[in-house]
Amino acid sequence: MTRITMTALGASACLLLAAAAPSAIGTGTQATQPVQMIDLTDPAHIENGKLRFAQNCSYCHGAEGIGGKHKKLQCRDFDPDYLFDVISNGLESGSYFMPPWDHFSDEKRWELVGYISSLGLLDSCS
Ligand code: HEC
C-alpha cells in the first residue's frame, strides 16, 4: 500500500469519525468513555459478534481469533473499553494497518467486544 493511499484512508477515516461523533459520544463531554450498552456475557450477543468476526476480521486475525496475518485474539485478557476503541478507530502497527469499523453501530461493536472477550475464556486457554 502506498503512502498516498494510506493518507487518503486516514483522511476518510477522520471524516467518518467526525460524522459519527455526535451519536457516539452523546453529551459530547465524555468522548473517551464509550457506553457499554449490552451484557457482554449474553450468549445471543456473543453469537452475533462471532458471525460478524468471521465475516470481517478472520481474514487478518484467523478463524475464531486464532491468529493469522495479525494478532492472535484468543486467550488474551483485554479491557472491554480498549477493544471498543480499537474496533472503532482502527490501529496502526508499524507498516500494518487495521481499518476502523465505525460504520458498525455501537451495539454491533460491543457484540464484537463480547465475542473477543469470550475468546479469553476458552477451555483451551487454561
Ligand atoms: C486488514 C487486516 C485487519 C482486519 C480486517 C482486522 N484487523 Fe484487527 N488488527 C490488525 C492489525 C495490523 C492490528 C495491529 C496489531 C498487529 O500488528 O497485529 C490489529 C489489532 C487488533 C486488536 C488489538 C490487538 C492487541 O494486541 O492489542 C484487536 C482487538 C483487533 N485488531 C480486532 C479486530 C476486529 C474485531 C476486527 C474486525 C471487525 C479486525 N480486528 C479486523 C489488522 C486487521
Structure overview:
With 126 residues, the chain is mainly alpha-helical. Helix 2 packs across helix 5. 51% of the residues lie in helices and 5% in strands. It has a domain at 40-126: Cytochrome c-like domain (Cytochrome Bc1 Complex, Chain D, domain 2, Orthogonal Bundle), CATH 1.10.760.10. The protein starts with a helix and ends in an 8-residue tail after the last helix. It has 5 helices and 2 strands. Strands 1-2 form a two-stranded antiparallel ribbon. A hairpin with a 2-residue loop joins strand 1 (91-93) and strand 2. Mean pLDDT is 83; it is low at 5-30. It is globular. Bound molecules: heme C. Keywords: Heme, Iron, Metal-binding, Signal. Residues 44-120 form the Cytochrome c domain. Residues 1-26 form the signal peptide.
For CATH, the homologous superfamily of the domain at 40-126 is named as Cytochrome c-like domain
The biggest beta sheet is recorded as: 2 strands, antiparallel
Order of helices and strands: HHHHEEH
Decide which structural class fits the backbone: mainly alpha
User: Helical percent range?
Assistant: 40-55%
Regions with little confidence, pLDDT below 50 for 5+ residues: 5-30
**Neighbour order of strands in the largest sheet:** 1-2
Rg to the nearest angstrom?
A: 15 Å
Total strands: 2
Q: Could you tell me how far the N terminus lies from the C terminus, measured between alpha carbons in angstroms?
A: 39 Å
What is the CATH-assigned architecture of the domain at 40-126?
A: Orthogonal Bundle
Overall mean pLDDT score? 83
List bound small molecules. heme C
The third-level CATH topology of the domain at 40-126 is Cytochrome Bc1 Complex, Chain D, domain 2
- At the first level of CATH, the class of the domain at 40-126 is Mainly Alpha
> Which of globular, elongated, flat, extended, rod-shaped describes the shape?
globular
Number of helices: 5
